[in-house]
Amino acid sequence: MSRFFANTYEYDSGSSSSEEDLLSASEEELMSSSSSDNEDLQESQDEEASDDSFFDESAAESDVDSDDSDGRPYGPDWFKKPEFRKGGSTGANRFLKNADYSDSESDDEGKKVVKSAKDKLLDEMRSVHDKIDVAEMSLDFVTILSELDSTTRLVTRAQQQNYGIPNIFIQVLAQVEDVVASTSQQDITNKAVAKAYNTTKQRVRKIARDYEDIIAKYREFPEAFSTEATEDGGAVQDNFAESSFALAGKNAADLSSVANATSESDFFTALRIVMDSRGKKGTDHQAQIKTLEELLDITKSPYETILAYLNLISFRFDSSASLSYQPIDQWKASRHDIAKLFDVLETNIEQYHVSEFAPRNDFVEDEPQTNEQGIKEILGSVYSFVDRLDDEFNKSLLNTDPHSSDFLDRLKEEQSVYNLILRSQLYVEATTIAQPDLQKRLARILTRRLDHIYYRSNKLVAITERKAWTSLREGAKSQVTPFEEEINDAYVFKLIDTLHQMLSSQKDGSQRKRAALYRIYFYALNNQFEKAKEMLLTSHVQSSINYSDPPLQILFNRAVVQLGLAAFKLCLIDDCHQILNEVSTSTHLRDILGQQSLQRVANNNAFSNGSIPSEQLCLPFHQHINLDLIDVVFMTCSLLIEVPHMAAFFSGIKVKRIPYSQKSIRRALEHYDKSSFQGPPETLRDRVLYSAKAMQRGDWEQSVSFLKSIPTWSMLPNTEEMIANLSKRVQIESLRTYIFTYKRFYSKLSIEKLCEMFGLDTETVVEIVTAIITDFDLHASLDEGSKFVTFEKGYEITKLEEVAVKLAKETKYMSERLNEKKYVGNSRRQE
């Protein structure tokens, strides 16, 4: 609220600093003089009141009448004291009468000075400096940390008001740096102080990094940063105006000179100003981007064009560093600039190379010296731009609704990103001479290339490769992954093997593991189960995966799930059940596969407590593995394995126990039997459950019909072939279940009848019956003509005996519970 609407206003109050910023310098002087005169007037009135009580009473009455005649003052009278409002002539006479006394009184007390917001801010910083001086003597780092935070907030206020960097702030930073450097952890015994010491050490290092140049100047010329006041206080104001906030107008002057740099002679001058402004607070990135775009139009040599593009692309990414992802238009502009940079580099590859290992050039005006090969190396990383572009692309996918058309439109840009990745690989190959260095420099690029193709089928990879090579300039070649005229399945598998082989030679263990898991996932996805399984066992990744980074753990879980699905597609039910048993029964399946939403990861990072960016713990929607498919596959495997096993167990056959899991069909059947009402199947789990009930009755046709009604199978390739194999396996397991369940009611079973019931040929039924008799030591035999299977009586238990056994187990369990409750009750009474 402005002072013009305040009932009372105190010039010395600490809350007035923000209001005083609204006044100009002339207004401050006017208010200062008015305040001093009014205070002198008030003092003279108080003195006269003590000398002439009668005059004081009449004056008071006059004041009340003049002030309250209309309820409250208005207009110009609002700002005047009661003595000077309209009709207040008595007050004016008193002022003239006691002028001498007022002067003498003010001489005794001294004039009160109105301080501006700048002076008050400096006073607060000096107070912080003094408190740190006192705390330094006793090594009170709790106070030092608190005051350091205070001065940081003060300098932020100064920058918000365009004041610049106060000298006293630089002194405080240097002072805290010296205190931390001269103190050892062993000198501190108090835990709270030790904790504050470590925090102070980290914080001052981080803050000083932004002001290292100014701190270096302070340590070299400390007298230039002096803020000591003279007797009349003038030195502080002069130093404050010339030194403390001299940096306030520097950025504005730089921007002005950059804006005027439109001629060819001013190219490097403008470029230097833009480069120096990068990373500084208050930099207008959009203005700098516009300036660099204008500088591209006046470049006259490839060297200037390369420098302009290197800085332009960097500024584009910096402009969106604080955003969740780079805006689409800026992303497309960055992609366009990177492609143009590649055009310039490839055209002038015999003269200029951009390399991360090039020597630093402090003077951009001078071109680098040629090396032994006659090449001028420019410090920079082309791949880092492609890497950042790909990261921003993934962020945009994670922040886009996957069920909207915007996601599909955004996904179409992935091919252009892959084209740039391949282009960066070919450029690094062309600019690297030593072969050992080539493998090291290509490691990140090849990993990124694998990251884009490992989750696709071989046909999609072939299309992607064909488009990528077509987009390159004519005559482009690769030593590592040579292009072949015909891109078929053999070429794709060879490409994956080559990329894995290149990365396997790296010293970085995480890169080797990641490459191995990429390869395993790809082979499993493309129906190469045996090879993928062998790769997983020989890589020994599973032995150390628990100590790896969370993104690598997510990739391992995805590879294991894909391996299980590959076994199911080949109808290898036992292998699939064994592989998926641990992963699919996890309560956080979505989390361990990296398929949770970005917001959920940001709110609850279960892996690393926020130490890893949330984007690395999530995968775009098009890379997800359908969770319903995993659930249905595991329950179907459980159906084919556990239903015959349960039938054998309840018929009295000694069988090996199967590990109990939360998502097994046995648990679902137990819950189904306990429920009082069973409706028709609605969910995917219900269909598998009803299929299991039909299998228990020996009705394999109805069991197969329930499984065929599951729409999730369409997500698997060759659905018809897979359903046919699955149906045959259901027939076999239904036959086994029927024999285990009903053998107690028969003395003989006709092989021909079994073939008719389960739609199997005689040879298959005989083979199954023989295996049952052998594996389970069943008291039965086949006659010589294999027409009947004969069961020996006296060994199996009847249905009544089975119920009695169950009842005995339940009774034993209940008695144990009752005894336990009695024991607990007696123990409590004794206590």
UniProtKB/TrEMBL annotation:
UniProtKB keywords: Cytoplasm, Initiation factor, Protein biosynthesis
GO terms, molecular function: RNA binding; translation initiation factor activity; translation initiation factor binding
Keyword RNA-binding: no
Top-level taxon of the source organism: Eukaryota
InterPro entries: EIF3C, EIF3C_N_dom, PCI_dom, WH_DNA-bd_sf
GO cellular component: cytoplasmic stress granule; eukaryotic 43S preinitiation complex; eukaryotic 48S preinitiation complex; eukaryotic translation initiation factor 3 complex, eIF3e; eukaryotic translation initiation factor 3 complex, eIF3m; multi-eIF complex; proteasome regulatory particle, lid subcomplex
Residues covered by region (Disordered): 1-111
Gene Ontology BP terms: formation of cytoplasmic translation initiation complex
Main location: cytoplasm
Biased composition (Acidic residues): 18-30, 37-68
Location in the cell: Cytoplasm
PCI domain sequence ranges: 621-796
Pfam families referenced in this protein's UniProt entry, alphabetically: eIF-3c_N (PF05470), PCI (PF01399)
Keyword Mitochondrion: no
HAMAP family membership: eIF3c (MF_03002)
Purpose: Component of the eukaryotic translation initiation factor 3 (eIF-3) complex, which is involved in protein synthesis of a specialized repertoire of mRNAs and, together with other initiation factors, stimulates binding of mRNA and methionyl-tRNAi to the 40S ribosome. The eIF-3 complex specifically targets and initiates translation of a subset of mRNAs involved in cell proliferation.
Family: Belongs to the eIF-3 subunit C family.
Subunit note: Component of the eukaryotic translation initiation factor 3 (eIF-3) complex.
Descriptive protein name: Eukaryotic translation initiation factor 3 subunit C
Species lineage: Eukaryota, Fungi, Dikarya, Ascomycota, Saccharomycotina
